[in-house]
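Support request from a user on the community tier.

User writes: "When I paste my C-alpha cells into the form, the page sometimes reloads and wipes my input. The last time it worked, I copied everything first. Here is what I submitted, just in case something in the input itself triggers the reload:"
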C-alpha cells in the first residue's frame, strides 16, 4: 500500500517554477532540501509543506485541496497549509512548512521553517475556528472536567491526541476490552 521509495520526484522547488505554469487551486509535488514538498496555489497565496502525509506516507500532491487545507488521498488526514499543522485524524504529526518566495515570475521554496516558529499562529487559527466555549493558550479550557473515550485503537488514540493538541488539559481515559490495548 505504501511506496517505500525515498526517491525524490517532481521539480526542484528551490530552483522554482514559472508562476504561469500553476493555476489557482493546483498542487505541485516536488522536492526541496532533499525532502518531498507540496507547493499549493490558493489565490492569492502560495504555500509549501511536506509532500507526504505523516500518517502513512501518501503523496499529498494527489490529495484534495479544501480552502487552505490539504486532505490526504488515502485516509483523509488534514493539514493546514499555513503552517503544516495536522488538523484532522488520523494524522498525529505536523508537516514541515517552508517559506515561499516569488521573484521575476518564478515561485520557489526559500527555506524550511523552524517547527516552533508558528506554534502561536497554530493556536490562533484553531481558536478562531473553535466554538465560543473553548478557550486556548493561557486561558483554561471550559467544558467537561474529564473525557472518556470508548475504544483505544487508532481512532481513540487520534481523538485523545487531538484533544491535547487543542489545549484540553483535563483527564482523558481510554476504555478498551482488547488485552493488547495501549497503556
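"...and here is what came back when it finally went through:"
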Amino acid at each position: 500500500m505504501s511506496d517505500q521509495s525515498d526517491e525524490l520526484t517532481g521539480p526542484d522547488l528551490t530552483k522554482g517554477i514559472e508562476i504561469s505554469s500553476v493555476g489557482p487551486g493546483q498542487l505541485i509535488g516536488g522536492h526541496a532540501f532533499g525532502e518531498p514538498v507540496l507547493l499549493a496555489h490558493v489565490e492569492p497565496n502560495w504555500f509549501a509543506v511536506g509532500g507526504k502525509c505523516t500518517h502513512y506516507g501518501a503523496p499529498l500532491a494527489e490529495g484534495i485541496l479544501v480552502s487552505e487545507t490539504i486532505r490526504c488521498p488515502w485516509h483523509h488526514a488534514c493539514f493546514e497549509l499555513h503552517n503544516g499543522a495536522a488538523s484532522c485524524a488520523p494524522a498525529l504529526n505536523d508537516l514541515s512548512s517552508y517559506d515561499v518566495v516569488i521573484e521575476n515570475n518564478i515561485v520557489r521554496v526559500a527555506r524550511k521553517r523552524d517547527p516552533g516558529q508558528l506554534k502561536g499562529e497554530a493556536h490562533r487559527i484553531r481558536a478562531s475556528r473553535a466554538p465560543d466555549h473553548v478557550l486556548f493558550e493561557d486561558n483554561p479550557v471550559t467544558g467537561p472536567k474529564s473525557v472518556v473515550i470508548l475504544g483505544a485503537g487508532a481512532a481513540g488514540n487520534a481523538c485523545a491526541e487531538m484533544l491535547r493538541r487543542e489545549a484540553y488539559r483535563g483527564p482523558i481515559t481510554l476504555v478498551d476490552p482488547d488485552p493488547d490495548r495501549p497503556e
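Agent notes: The reload is a front-end session timeout and is unrelated to the input. Confidence is low (pLDDT under 50) at residues 120-139. The longest helix spans residues 154-165. Escalated to web team.
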